[in-house]
Amino acid sequence: MEQLTNTSNYNGALQKPTGSGFAATSTSTDVMKGMDLTGKTAIVTGGYAGIGLETVSQLAAAGAKVIVPARDRNKAAKNLAGIGQVTIAVMDLMDPVSIDAFAAQFLATGSPLHLLINNAGIMWVPLQRDARGYESQLATNHLGHFQLTARLWPALKKARGARVVNVSSYGHQIAPFNFEDPNFEHREYETLSAYGQSKTANNLFAVELDHRGQASGVRAYSLHPGSVNGTDLGRDAPIALFQQMGMFDADGNIFPEVAKKLKTIPQGAATTLWCATSSLLKNIGGVYCENADVAEPDLGNIEHQYNEPLTLRGVMPYSVSAENAKKLWTLSEELTGLTFTAD
Known about the structure:
By secondary structure, the chain is an alpha/beta fold. The chain is 35% helix and 11% strand.
C-alpha cells in the first residue's frame, strides 16, 4: 500500500479547522487586510461576475496582476471597468481549443503564475453536451479546469510557491462521482446529480493535484463559498428546484427570512481569497475549506437544512478519498486526451 505522507489530504487526513479567526460573516476585505501581492500574477476564471469579480477586485487591490479569461469579452470589459492591473483574454471552458490557445498565450509571456483560481462554473442547467459529447456541468466545472491547470503547469512550477484554488460547493454532497457513467449516456439526466458530481470532482482534483504537485511547490485547495445572494449562478435552474429546497415560495420569490441568512458577495469571496493567501495553509494542502477555514469531515454528525444555510457545511469522505482522487485523475486524462504528470 502506498505510504501516505502527513502533508497529503488523502482520505481527509488534514480536514480539521485551523482556528483562522474568521467566520461565516467574514468578508473579502477582512481576509485581505494587510495583504501585499505586489509582483504576483493571478488567473481567475469567471472573474467578471459574482464572487469571481469580487475575487479579482481584491487581488488587484492588493497589488497582483490579474488575468481574466472570459467567454464573453464585452461583458467582462464592462464589469471589470475601473479595476487596475486586470487583463481580459478570450477562453471558453467548453472549448478545448480555446483553453489551449489561452494557455499558450500566457506561457509565451514567460511569466510565473502564482495563483490559479478555478472559479467559473455553471449550475443546474438542462442537459447540454460539448463537441466531444461530454455533459456540460462536468465539462465546464471540472474537465475544462483540469485541462487549463495542466497546460499552465510550467508557469505554476516557475512561481516556486503557487496555489491552485478550485471553487467547489456544498453541492458536492448531492452526489459522489459516477465513474461508470459520468456523462449520463446510460442513465436518465438529473441536473442536480450532474452538478453534485462535478463539485465532487473539484474536491478530488484538489486532493490529487496537491499530492502530486507539492514537490514542485504547488499546493491546491477546494472550497464552499457559502450560499451567496446576488450571483447569477442559478439563472438556468427551474424555480421548482428552489421551492423543493424550501427556499422559494409558491410565487417563485425567495423567502425573506432565507434571504437574510444568505452571504453577501464579499462574504462569499472570503474563502476563495483565504485559500489563495493565508499563511496558515503554508504547509497544508488538498483540503476542502468553508467560512475562511478548513472544513470538518461530515461523518453523519451534521444536520443539514437548505433553509438554514449555515447548516450546509462539512466535506463528504468520498470527495477526499485517495482512491477516488487517483481514479478521477486517470479518467480526466482519458477524457481530455492529456497526460498531466504534475511533477
